[in-house]
Amino acid sequence: MTSVSDFGLETKFQTFDTGTGLAGETGIAGYASLFGEADQGGDVVCRGAYARSLAALSAQGRKVKMLWQHDPAQPIGVWDEIREDAHGLHVRGRILADVRRGAEALTLLKAGAIDGLSIGYRTVRAAKTSLGRALEEIELWEVSLVTFPMLPSARASLGAGEADDALARALTEAIAEARADLT
To answer: Using an 8 Å Cβ cutoff, are 177 and 87 in contact?
Structure first.
C-alpha cells in the first residue's frame, strides 16, 4: 500500500521475514526496500535510486529517521547504517528501549506481532510502466517499523554483529549476481 500526504511524502512497506534481526537488546537490521521487485502498488525501485539522497544526507551530517508507523512525533531509535547493495536498501540501527514506543516496539518485535519496515520518501524521478512506476531516484526521509508492509517478499538479516552482517551482505550480493547471470 502506498500512501501520499499533503506534502508529497510517500510510504512503502516491507516485511522482515523469519529472522527479524535483534542484536542484544535493541539492534535491528533488514532491508527497507528491494530492487527490481514490484510492490503491492506496482512500483519497482531501481538500483541506485537512493544514492543521491544518502550522499546528500551524509554531506549535511544528517540521518534518516527511525519512526513508529510513520508518525513523525514518534521516533523510536536511530539508524546507524543505511546503504544500497546489490539486493536493496539495507538498514541497521538501534531501537531505544528508554523511549516508551521504542520499548513497545521491541516487545512487539520479539513476540512477532510486528514484522515490517516501511520507507517514507519523495519521488524525484520515475518512469511509467505497465504495472505502475519504475522509481529511478528517491529522496529518503525515514524508515519506520510498521504492522503492514508494502513489499512482503523482502527479507531481514540478523543484526547480531559486524561479522554476521558482513557475511549476510556477501551472501546477498552473491545471490543477486547469480540471479543476474541466469537472466
So the answer is: no
